[in-house]
Amino acid sequence: MFTATLEHDGRIERFRTFQIAVGNGRFYGGGMTVHADATAIDGLLDFYSLEVDHWWKLLALLPSLRSGTQGGWNDVRTFSTKDLTIRTRKPRAVNLDGEFKVKTPVRFTIREQAVSVYVP
Q: Are 27 and 36 in contact (CB under 8 A)?
């Protein structure tokens, strides 16, 4: 577990967590789901944090993590936003699409219409 500080939507939150996930689409990590209703075109970042007090509770959470319904658990923090910053006391590696490229602190933000896509 580690302590994280989040800044989003004018709020600052500090908590202990096993894992944080941020996505701009529905899936990550080979089929895990950030949020059941997330899409790549909804203009939002979806966030969850696993704040269970015992590691064995993660086993019960696994089906929800696959389906994206983990927000129904009391030990899981979820929300959607357009911009968030994650800070940790010591720099922690951040997995970005399967690669460790940066360390905390890290900022995620939506840049609407940043890429033009043409479909025949």
A: no
Q: Determine the residue type at 4.
A: A
Asked if 120 and 102 count as a contact pair (C-beta separation under 8 A), the reply is no
The most confident of the ranges 9-18, 21-30, 38-47 is: 9-18
Retrieve residue 111's tokens: 């840049």
What residues contact residue 51 under an 8 Å CB cut-off, 6+ apart? 15, 16, 17, 18, 75, 76, 77
pLDDT attached to residue 82: 95
Q: What is the pTM of this model?
A: 0.82
Cα separation, 95 vs 87, in Å, equals 15
Strand positions, DSSP E, 2-75: 2-8, 11-17, 19-23, 27-28, 32-33, 45-50
Q: How far apart are CA 45 and CA 80, in angstroms?
A: 5
CB-CB contact of 93 with 103 (8 Å): yes
Tokens of 99: 């690669």
**Token couple for 105:** 């602190």
